[in-house]
Design brief:
The chain is 29% helix and 26% strand. The chain is built from 15 helices and 27 strands. A 9-stranded mixed sheet has the order 3-2-12-11-13-14-15-16-17, with helices on both faces.
Length: 531
């Protein structure tokens, strides 16, 4: 079908490698040699690219010895550490699929996420081991557990021991890189629990090339990048993978601590920061920033949620930057779809289309494509668009239309120069510190409480976190339950970012449409009237 208004991004300045991700990693890692690849922000432990290369080969050999083959899934459930990248690279060397899992997931959330990807083996931290062990006893598809630390039983493998499985002669397997799934990432939707986003080798290889494009120049071989965002999350998972291919140095933080964050920038001369708005707010307002020399920072890329212009101005003045470059994207699109080009200023914009990507802005009611300055749903097509949701054809069909356009659920427009502006969300995801929190998931949990008759969850605006999950609750007649009871009830079922940080409001009625859908705009209107 032809559309009257379709914008197209520029062509890539060079071609995408016609090989698998494993083959490309093999070539790049071996070429980086003795260059420093990683530094632990707290201990100072250093690892060279030659070590990543040899250790990854050893782990690839171990995976093969355990019977894993192309198409099998390798799970990784851990906080940030120097070893995180090793099973990822090893998986791609044998043509396996990675499935990063949040180590703070409850057993309830882990059961759901693992049921989507069905990992044959899971690499996990000691922090996540108890839940992973429970999961393995319930899920027949998990055959092995490898622990970054001390195992709980003799049936589990210590990661340090499998590194001695010498496989220096191992060569990456040839696979159908255009169709083979490289990673299954958890992405929240409006209908409740997370779905598994399948990104192919080709999706990720295209992302590598546009990141290297001089017009965007996010990452350069000379860069030192601070890995402060969680590696199990799509944003940093893909950034660290791309960084390994390019050959940058990563300074890795196991968890966020303000002083460690600022000291790392100063002491390691960080040049590039991939951040989310809550951390950028800290850079704007924390008095601790003045104690450190942050002049090495060349570029800050902001993603995962909108960044307010006044915060950008404060940080730029404080750090001596010309701009903070915002991008817009989704996990379903291998992250970025638009990006502010280097040395380009456009107040309030999320940038222009990345290379080889098309966009149509369609009227939410009629589906007609719209011209400049007219608001509608943003729909994209291009080499970064996911293969689909794992095991969920219905959700895939609802997201990607018959012409291959991904319907984002976000409302925006573009100007005459092709710069995009995000206005609102058709979808109702709550953005808490860069994490996506689906209201429907929290509503489903609250409705299992015997004292809850009806519930509607929405976002409470917050300067530091972006948005806080808040629940409007109708109690059952004669029910005796406190707000704290319900907050704690939800906390027992979900990971920290999904808790009711905005609190609970008791009400007599949840506003709904005639068909039963919650009118969240009415809930938001009520909150706004009380602010």
């Amino acid at each position: 079908m032809e559309y009257k208004f379709v914008l197209t991004g520029p062509k890539l300045t060079h071609s995408v490698p016609n090989i698998s991700l494993g083959q490309h990693l093999y070539q790049c890692l071996s070429s980086h040699g003795e260059k420093v690849a990683q530094v632990d922000a707290v201990t100072g432990e250093t690892r060279k690219y030659s070590e990543i290369f040899s250790k990854s080969l050893n782990i690839a050999g171990f995976l093969c010895s355990r019977g894993l083959k192309s198409g099998d899934v390798v799970g990784i459930c851990s906080e940030n550490n120097l070893d995180f990248i090793l099973p990822v690279v090893a998986a791609y060397l044998i043509g396996a699929t990675c499935a990063p899992l949040n180590p703070k997931y409850t057993i309830y959330e882990l059961q759901h996420a693992a049921s989507i990807s069905k990992p044959r083996i899971i690499f996990c931290s000691e922090h996540a081991l108890e839940n992973i062990d429970k999961l393995s006893r319930e899920a027949g598809f998990i055959k092995d557990i490898v622990v970054f630390g001390r195992p709980m039983s003799h049936k589990q493998f210590a990661f340090r021991n499998i590194l001695w499985n010498k496989s220096s002669n191992f060569l990456p397997l040839e696979v159908d890189h255009k169709n083979l799934v490289a990673v299954i990432l958890c992405s929240s939707g409006t209908t409740g629990l997370p779905k598994g986003v399948m990104l192919t080798h080709a999706n990720i290889l295209h992302a590598v090339e546009y990141v290297c494009d001089y017009r965007y120049s996010d990452m350069r071989p000379s860069d030192t990048v601070l890995a402060v965002l969680p590696m199990f999350h799509a944003y940093m998972f893909l950034c660290q993978l791309i960084g390994c291919i390019i050959g940058v140095k990563f300074v890795i933080m196991g968890r966020f601590e303000e002083d460690v964050f600022l000291r790392s920038i100063q002491n390691h001369k960080i040049t590039l920061l991939y951040l989310v708005p809550p951390i950028i707010v800290l850079l704007a307002k924390s008095s601790a920033v003045d104690k450190y020399d942050l002049s090495s920072v060349r570029d800050i890329i902001s993603g995962a949620a909108p960044l307010k212009h006044d915060i950008e101005v404060l940080v730029c003045e404080r750090l001596g930057l010309g701009q903070i470059r915002q991008g817009y994207g989704l996990t379903e699109a291998t992250l970025a779809l638009t990006m502010i080009p280097s040395n380009t200023k456009k107040r309030g914009s999320s940038g222009v289309l990345i290379p080889d990507t098309e966009c149509k802005v369609v009227d939410v009611q009629s589906g007609q494509s719209l011209g400049p300055h007219k608001e509608g749903e943003l729909c994209f097509r291009g080499p970064g668009i996911m293969k689909g949701y794992s095991g969920n054809l219905q959700a895939t069909s609802a997201m990607i239309d018959s012409d291959g356009f991904l319907h984002t659920g976000d409302v925006g427009y573009y100007d005459e120069e092709g710069f995009f502006f995000i206005v609102d969300r058709v979808k109702e995801l709550i953005k808490y510190k860069g994490f996506q929190v689906p209201p429907a998931e929290l509503e489903a949990i609250l409705l299992t409480h015997p004292a809850v008759k009806d519930v509607g969850v929405t976002a409470l605006p917050d300067e530091k976190a972006g948005e806080l999950p808040l629940a409007f609750i109708v109690k059952q007649p004669e029910a005796k339950v406190t707000k704290e009871d319900l907050i704690n009830y939800v906390a027992g079922h979900v990971s920290p970012q999904k808790r009711l940080h905005g609190g609970v409001i008791f009400t007599d009625l949840i506003p709904r449409t005639p068909s039963g859908k919650i009118l969240r705009r009415e809930l938001k209107k009520y909150l706004k009237s009380k602010m």
